[in-house]
Amino acid sequence: MTGDERTLIEANRAFYEAFRGRDLSRLDKLWASEHEVAVIHPGWAAVHGRGEVLESWRRIIEGPSPPDIRCSAERPFLMGDAGFVICRELLGGGELIATNVFVREDGEWRLVHHQAGPVPPAAAAEEPGPPTVH
Amino acid sequence: MTGDERTLIEANRAFYEAFRGRDLSRLDKLWASEHEVAVIHPGWAAVHGRGEVLESWRRIIEGPSPPDIRCSAERPFLMGDAGFVICRELLGGGELIATNVFVREDGEWRLVHHQAGPVPPAAAAEEPGPPTVH
Q1: pLDDT at position B127, please?
Q2: Which of A48, A91, A134 sits opposite B41 (nearest CB)?
């Protein structure tokens, strides 16, 4: 793993730590401020704009059932000063799979986008079988 | 819309045209060859590697029910020589929401990643209501 891949993974972990820790101030710092941002929460329409994106996190974190979330199976993908991480999100009641897109601002990886959606449990995914629906 | 945003949207449309047209040769050309690629089909584990990614498209396109898919509500996000498009995927039986990540190779936008997942219909999404689950 290269240095850039390592720092990308670290930025991704910092995101989940802030999420799990319900640390909105830290989440604010982890999201890009010089690029447009968006988020697609599971089963929801896209949320656009920094204010709306952070507000969506606030509502989840301060909501009646903020998730005890952890990430696993992270894989980094680099494209110069941009990159993304694919990872599984382990929740109390199941798993999601997420794409987190980052851009480098002032030498630090900052989030510009997050999409999470349903995924079969990792054990089931190991079983053979092609995707037959898009 | 800037020139880069326009070409990013065009690359995204070319992807859906190739998908709808079941044009695997065109899909092959639209996916990056100098960067690592991945795809997360709805409800499936991540697929990694160019060969596996293209094989997953082949199975969908040549499968028993290849979708009649169109994209709408595209929004481009630029990060220099990388970018992504968020769009809705209109299928015969419903809608999905997708993130398509691109990188510039030899002056052309090429796909490096696609994640699609469930979304409420656009009409329902207009109704007020915060995301209460992650």
Answers
A1: 43
A2: A134
Per-residue pLDDT at A127? 42
Whether A132 is in a domain gets the answer no
* Domain range enclosing A51: 3-117
Q: How many domains does chain A have?
A: 1
Cβ pair B38, B53 in contact under 8 A = yes
Detail the DSSP E strand segments found in chain A. 38-40, 47-48, 70-79, 82-91, 94-105, 108-118
- Rounded CA gap, B134 and B120, in Å? 15
User: Is residue B134 one of the residues assigned to a domain?
Assistant: no
B59, pLDDT greater than 80 = yes
CA distance A51 to chain B (A): 14
pTM equals 0.93
Residue A120's pLDDT is what? 87
- Is A31 domain-assigned? yes
Query: Could you tell me the two tokens for A99?
Result: 């794409």
pLDDT of residue A96: 96
Q: What are phi and psi of A50, to 5 degrees?
A: -60, -45
Neighbours of A69 (CB within 10 A): 18
| Gap between the Cα atoms of A70 and A60, Å rounded | 15
d(CA B32, nearest CA chain A) in Å = 11
